[in-house]
C-alpha cells in the first residue's frame, strides 16, 4: 500500500505519539492500540530505542502503520526510512528536510507554528502539516485563523492535545487528525497494563466528534 500524507492523516482521528525505551514494549503497545481500534502510530526518535521499535513493528506487526516522529535532520529521515517507517513527522520545517523528502518515497509531514512556515511548506507542495506545539502557539484559534489564507492546508495538531480538547480541534475543517500521548501512556506500558490502554483507546474513539 502506497501512502501519501493525506491518507496517513485519515487513517485514524487519533495518532498516538509514542516515546519508548524498549522495542519489545513498543511491539506490545502496537498490538493493543490496534486491538482498541487505532492502526497508526508515531514513534518518536527521542530515545535510542525508537528506530529499533519502528523496525520491529514494521517487520513483526505490519497491520500497524508505523512512522517516525521527532525527525529533525536528514540523517533522522534516512534512518527512519531504513527502519521501515511508513511516514515521518517533524517538529519543524527546514529546506534540507524538504529536499530530502523529494528524494524519498514516504510522506513527510512537517511541523509548523506560523504563517511563514505554512507558506514555505506550500511553496514546496506540502499541503499536510503538524501544528506544533499546538496548545502553546494558539491551538484552535490559530487554526481557525490559518483557515482563511490557507484553505488548502490540512493539519494534525500535536502538543497539549488530550481527551478533553481533541474534539475542539477535530471540529475544524482544516484538521484531519490529532496527535497525542494520552492513549499510549509510557507508565502503563512499563507496568504492562495493556488492557487499560485498550480501554483508553476505545473510550477515546467512542467520543471522537463524528
TrEMBL record:
Domain of life: Bacteria
This protein's UniProt keywords: Carbohydrate metabolism, Lyase
Lyase keyword on record: yes
Family matches, as SUPFAM superfamilies: Aldolase
Lyase is among the record's keywords: yes
Coiled-coil regions listed in the entry: none
Record's catalysed reaction(s): 2-dehydro-3-deoxy-6-phospho-D-gluconate = D-glyceraldehyde 3-phosphate + pyruvate
Molecular function via GO: 2-dehydro-3-deoxy-phosphogluconate aldolase activity
E.C. numbers: 4.1.2.14
Pathway named in the protein's UniProt entry: Carbohydrate acid metabolism; 2-dehydro-3-deoxy-D-gluconate degradation; D-glyceraldehyde 3-phosphate and pyruvate from 2-dehydro-3-deoxy-D-gluconate: step 2/2
Record note on quaternary structure: Homotrimer.
Similarity comment text for this entry: Belongs to the KHG/KDPG aldolase family.
PANTHER family found in the cross-reference section: 2-DEHYDRO-3-DEOXY-6-PHOSPHOGALACTONATE ALDOLASE-RELATED, 2-KETO-3-DEOXY-6-PHOSPHOGLUCONATE ALDOLASE
The protein, known as: 2-dehydro-3-deoxy-phosphogluconate aldolase
Gene giving rise to this polypeptide: eda1
Amino acid at each position: 500500500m502506497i501512502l501519501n500524507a493525506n491518507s496517513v492523516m485519515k487513517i485514524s482521528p487519533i495518532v498516538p505519539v509514542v516515546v519508548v525505551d524498549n522495542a519489545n514494549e513498543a511491539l506490545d503497545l502496537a498490538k493493543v492500540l490496534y486491538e482498541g481500534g487505532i492502526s497508526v502510530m508515531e514513534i518518536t526518535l527521542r530515545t535510542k530505542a525508537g528506530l529499533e521499535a519502528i523496525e520491529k513493528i514494521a517487520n513483526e506487526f505490519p497491520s500497524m502503520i508505523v512512522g517516525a516522529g521527532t525527525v529533525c535532520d536528514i540523517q533522522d529521515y534516512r534512518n527512519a526510512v531504513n527502519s521501515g517507517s511508513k511516514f515521518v513527522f517533524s517538529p519543524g520545517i527546514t529546506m534540507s528536510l524538504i529536499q530530502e523528502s523529494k528524494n524519498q518515497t514516504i510522506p513527510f509531514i512537517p511541523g509548523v507554528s506560523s504563517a511563514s512556515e505554512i507558506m514555505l511548506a506550500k511553496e514546496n507542495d506540502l499541503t499536510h502539516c503538524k501544528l506544533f506545539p499546538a496548545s502553546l502557539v494558539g491551538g484552535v484559534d490559530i487554526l481557525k485563523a490559518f483557515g482563511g489564507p490557507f484553505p488548502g492546508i490540512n493539519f494534525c495538531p500535536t502538543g497539549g492535545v488530550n481527551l478533553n480538547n481533541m474534539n475542539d480541534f477535530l471540529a475544524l475543517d482544516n484538521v484531519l487528525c490529532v496527535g497525542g500521548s494520552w492513549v499510549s501512556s509510557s507508565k502503563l506500558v512499563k507496568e504492562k497494563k495493556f488492557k487499560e490502554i485498550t480501554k483508553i483507546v476505545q473510550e477515546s474513539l467512542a467520543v471522537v466528534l463524528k
